[in-house]
Specification:
two-stranded antiparallel ribbon; 2 strands; mainly alpha
């Protein structure tokens, strides 16, 4: 049985063309910074951007009869996966032209930025042009909400197409009745917090350019900095606290943010994900405090950075690699769990973990309860179906399978087992924390594998697997 036919491919191409146009326009933005700082790299941004725009327009016009209204969920997932790949490729070509690194390194760097993974190939980011530093931050900011979500907010019309593309990027929460209105409200909240972050950083004494780039990075839970020492460069507790606040804001569901004013703050108190995140932060900080000599600020910052999958850091990977094994273990567990569903984070996400353990508890109660007892499954006062719990368990199992496969391949190439496991969890969860500087010694084939991990982590696995299945079917025929 064929799941993808010629008509499907043409529908996918027509819808992908819209996103290619949007990606092209996105890549034009850094030209403003290039002109301000007189860096003379505008042509390196212009050529790939125009190529994406013109190719998108050509495909869109050529396939006019394959209307966007025929889009099904399988099409949307393929469009979403291919759009992220295309964005990584076009942004990577720009990095290749401007910074003269290999094309594999350039694509790895751009995918890392777009997915909010925050793992950098550059050994000296402070030597990069301002336009590239801005571009990396801007990619993280766009990727925080999602490349597809950002573009359809501008280019796509309200309706089923927007709804399916929204779902394909692992987003389901509705702030408003329509998808288009939900996206606009989400972007408004995102913009408010971005301006808020820039303002706080400037007040704390951070240079304006750094404030903009770091806010893009932190609020999107991306973690790439404009300094080699990351946030540790500033050596300022006030800046660290501002970063912690922004990381928690970025890792909290946009639905909770939306309801915050209406409920006078009760949406935070009643949200199981937010409560769990704060509890995990508190417990982890205390465990590290009483079992190690890690400096309290380093302790709090890395715990928040890990669970919010931001990957920002105060200490270098070498220093972190020297921390006690139990501390490394706690950080890895936090990187696996992640923050709230419906936020900018990666990893498994708290809702799936909560549902997984609620399912285990309910199944245990079934065994010791009288026969025929009805035990409904609830979360935040709402009834949940068996299917939701089952899907959470399946996703968690698949997530760990990907970690095991990547970890085994890193070990096969001779890398340190603990460093490799930590790095694998960091890539798969779109975190960006490292111990032992793994990114600087990765072989090209492992960088390609890392690109796969970062994309599956950001798109929550299934769209990428469906795309691979479709490509297999196409090439098989």
């Amino acid at each position: 049985m064929r799941y993808i036919n010629k008509s499907d491919l043409l529908i996918i191409a027509r819808n992908l063309a819209i996103l290619m146009i949007g990606i092209g326009f996105m890549c034009l933005v850094p030209i403003i910074i290039d002109l301000v700082y007189l860096e003379v790299n505008a042509i390196s941004y212009l050529v790939p951007s125009l190529f994406s725009i013109l190719l998108g327009l050509l495909i869109y016009q050529s396939l006019d009869k394959y209307t966007i209204n025929k889009l099904r969920l399988k099409h949307a997932m393929l469009v979403s996966s291919l759009a992220w790949l295309w964005a990584g490729l076009i942004c990577g070509v720009i990095l290749f032209f401007v910074t003269d690194i290999s094309i594999i390194d350039a694509i790895f760097e751009s995918i890392s930025a777009l997915t909010g993974s925050g793992i950098t190939i550059y050994a000296d980011v402070e030597s990069l042009p301002y336009s590239i530093l801005f571009f990396r931050g801007f990619q993280q900011w766009i990727g925080g909400l999602g490349v597809v979500v950002m573009i359809i907010s501008v280019l796509a019309k309200p309706g089923t197409v927007s709804s399916k593309l929204y779902i394909s990027e692992a987003r389901e929460d509705r702030l408003k009745p329509s998808t288009k209105a939900t996206i606009k409200q989400t972007i408004l909240i995102y913009l408010i917090y971005t301006v808020f972050g820039i303002f706080l950083y400037v007040l704390a004494g951070m240079p304006v350019f750094d404030s903009i780039a770091n806010t893009f990075s932190i609020i999107s839970t991306g973690g790439m900095s404009v300094k080699n020492a990351n946030m540790g460069f500033y050596n300022d507790d006030l800046i660290y606290f501002i970063s912690i606040i922004l990381m928690i804001l970025g890792a909290t569901s946009f639905l909770v943010h939306f309801k915050f004013i209406k409920t006078r703050g009760r949406s935070l108190i009643h949200d199981s994900q937010f409560k769990t995140m704060i509890c995990l932060i508190a417990i982890s900080v205390l465990l590290i405090y009483f079992t190690s000599s890690v400096v309290p600020m380093d302790n709090l910052f890395v715990v928040v950075s890990a669970i919010t999958t931001t990957g920002a850091s105060i200490q270098s990977p070498i220093v972190m690699g020297g921390w006690p094994p139990f501390v490394i273990f706690i950080i890895m567990m936090l990187m696996i769990v992640g923050g709230s569903t419906g936020s900018t984070v990666g990893a498994i996400k708290l809702m799936r973990v909560i549902l997984f353990f609620k399912g285990i508890y309910r199944n245990s109660r079934k065994i010791w309860s009288p026969e025929g007892t009805v035990l409904p499954l609830k979360n935040d006062g709402k009834k949940l179906s068996e299917k939701v719990v089952e899907q959470s368990g399946n996703y968690i199992a698949l997530y760990f399978m990907l970690i095991l496969v990547t970890w085994s391949l890193l070990c096969l190439y001779g890398h340190d087992p603990l460093d490799s496991l930590f790095f694998t969890i960091s890539m798969q969860g779109n975190v960006g924390l490292e111990i032992g500087q793994m990114s600087s010694v990765l072989e090209p084939s492992l960088k390609v594998l890392g690109i796969f991990n970062m994309l599956t982590g950001r798109l929550e696995i299934y769209p990428i697997l469906i795309t691979l299945r479709a490509l297999f079917e196409v090439f098989k025929s």
